[in-house]
DNA sequence: TGGTCAATCTCGCCCAGTTG
DNA sequence: CAACTGGGCGAGATTGACCA
């Protein structure tokens, strides 16, 4: 009986096939399917740590004879062949789909004007959290997303009013699990006021990352609308910032602000 | 016995769906 | 419209099996 190649060699073979056919970057799932087509009884649980062990910019994983010299991660679950010509621009980087927010202290010092650290609206002092830095591609251009194309129910459910746009991705620091009222704006104009129970979650799992479902009727079209506004504003060369006022009474604070101040991105 | 390869497990994030 | 929940998946660490 013919002995099959070791898993790590099969992974390398698959990666070379993807690269040669132009299907690069490829996903972890692509690798697993390819390996299983060559070694049918090989389980994903066996393949995953070996992929990890072959990838130069991922820690851990199962060590192999080839070492971490065969794959390079270009995003969460996305890989390229390390010997591919496409790797040159990204060698040495870390996967970029997980945006690691810069520390708050550093973000604050990046702001041009010291008075941006705090703004007063309606008698309330809002503290600057960070600049809303959207994810860029390898060329430094804003990475565009159309998650609506990935929704399984697209054929039976219409897009919502804001679901057909281009979207961006961004994150804020994850440690801000606080309720309160937030302001999105440029350094000269507040644009949107909103309330939240968990600021980090509201942005990192809401505005900052549009899921396919939210582009369709029944989804959170406000997330789509605000994300698209952020995308178009930042694309236009303007910097956007996030300010926050921590309070348990966020509903009444937001309501009074909306009554006293006109925020162009808030709807009536 | 040490190196290589494979398997198993935990943790955290993403996403879709649901609820208020 | 915002918040919550649970399943699936990827990342990473650890352990076991095999072989020269």
Polypeptide structure, described:
It is a single chain. With 268 residues, this protein is of the alpha+beta class. It has two domains: 7-87; 104-260, no CATH class. The longest helix has 15 residues, at 221-235. Helix 1 packs across helix 2 (28-38) and helix 2 packs across helix 3 (44-54). Helices cover 29% and strands 16% of the residues. A hairpin with a 2-residue loop joins strand 2 (71-75) and strand 3. Strands 4-5-8-6-7 form a five-stranded antiparallel sheet. Residues 84-114 have low confidence and may be disordered. It is built from seven helices and eight strands, in the order αβααββαββββααβα. The structure holds a DNA duplex (20 and 20 nucleotides). This is DUF7669 domain-containing protein. Residues 6-81 form the DUF7669 domain. It comes from Pseudohongiella spirulinae. InterPro entries: DUF7669.
Helical amount among residues, as a percent range?
25-40%
- How many strands? 8
Strand order of the largest sheet: 4-5-8-6-7
Shape: elongated
Q: What gap, in angstroms, lies between the N and C termini? A: 73 Å
Oligomeric state of the chains?
Answer: single chain
Radius of gyration: 22 Å
The profile of the biggest β sheet is: 5 strands, antiparallel
Order of SSEs, N→C? HEHHEEHEEEEHHEH
Low-confidence runs: 84-114
What structural class do you assign from the helix and strand content?
alpha+beta
Number of helices: 7
Estimate nothing, just give the exact number of structural domains. 2
Strand content: 15-25%
Average pLDDT figure = 67
Protein name: DUF7669 domain-containing protein
InterPro entries: DUF7669
Organism: Pseudohongiella spirulinae
Domain DUF7669: 6-81
């Amino acid at each position: 009986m013919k002995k099959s190649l070791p898993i790590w060699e099969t992974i390398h073979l698959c990666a070379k096939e993807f690269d040669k056919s132009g299907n690069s970057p490829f996903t972890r799932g692509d690798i697993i399917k390819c390996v299983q087509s060559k070694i049918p009884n090989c389980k994903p649980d066996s393949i995953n740590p070996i992929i990890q062990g072959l990838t130069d910019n991922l820690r851990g994983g199962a060590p192999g004879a080839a070492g971490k010299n065969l794959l390079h991660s270009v995003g969460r679950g996305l890989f390229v062949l390390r010997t591919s010509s496409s790797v040159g621009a990204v060698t040495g980087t870390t996967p970029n789909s997980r945006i690691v927010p810069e520390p708050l202290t550093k973000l604050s010092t990046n702001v041009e004007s010291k008075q941006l650290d705090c703004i007063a609206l309606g008698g309330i002092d809002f503290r600057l959290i960070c600049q809303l830095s959207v994810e860029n591609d390898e060329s430094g251009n804003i990475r565009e997303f159309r998650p609506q194309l990935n929704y399984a129910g697209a054929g039976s459910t219409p897009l919502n009013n804001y679901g057909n746009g281009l979207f961006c991705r961004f994150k804020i620091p994850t440690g801000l699990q606080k309720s309160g009222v937030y302001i999105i704006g440029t350094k000269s104009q507040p644009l949107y006021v909103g309330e939240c129970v968990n600021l980090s979650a509201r942005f990192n799992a809401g505005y900052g990352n549009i899921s396919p479902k939210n582009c369709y009727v029944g989804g959170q079209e406000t997330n789509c609308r605000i994300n698209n506004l952020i995308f178009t504003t930042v694309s236009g060369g303007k910097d956007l910032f996030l300010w926050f006022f921590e309070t348990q009474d966020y509903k009444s604070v937001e309501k009074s602000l909306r009554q006293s101040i006109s925020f162009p991105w808030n709807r009536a």
